[in-house]
Amino acid sequence: MASLRELQRSFAAALRDPALTCPVRPATRLAIYRGNVSHNFRSALELGFPVLRRRVGDEYFAQLVFHYRERFPSRSGDLHWAGRDFAEFLTAHLAGGDYAWLADLARLEWARQAAAIEVALPPVGADALAAAAPEALEHLRFTLQPSLRLLESAYPVFSVWLANQVENAPPVEQSTGLEHGMILARSDGVEVARLAPDVFSYLSALAAGASLGEAMTRSALDGPRLAQVLGHIFGEGLVIGVSPASP
Greater confidence, 45 or 27? Predict the structure, then answer.
């Protein structure tokens, strides 16, 4: 007699592949389970990737989800994680075609889902820098909001996403090319915003653990522009802590 674990594996495999046999009887009962699982999986992706779905249409989106589930079946009881590998799948599935840019759009929409389950913590203001001696400023490090996600794309995916917050949005001209942006949990929802390239570069360096001086060098900021960028970062509430760099 098969063990409980073997029965569970057989059942899970049969839910994904109708050609496989399973101890569940009658077969019509298994078909009901299979239909429910497929529907719930697709519904989770429809909710998580609404702009991507809108841009390609329901029929093509359903085809993408079908092939994606074949490659990346859900391995969690929480459907929030169903779309975790969708961008990776689209990168391979659409490589070299006119729709290759959809993989980056999926990355943006997955970043929104990831940010949504993070907590928006109280930010600190620029006055947190006042406690440091002038010669120590370049050695400070920032702790950023845990929900902050930074994304760079060769395609205008931020423009596409922002434009598609209304019905019947016109297509965005793909030739506009490279865009940078951030995704951030706010108290009233998740914000998606474009960033200037130097702001993105500076934030990316800070997020990777660079000190203020190191980030300034990496992003090639001069003094006046640094003041503007710091004003933007603090003004947006992105900093939750300031500390001296470790020796």
Answer: 45
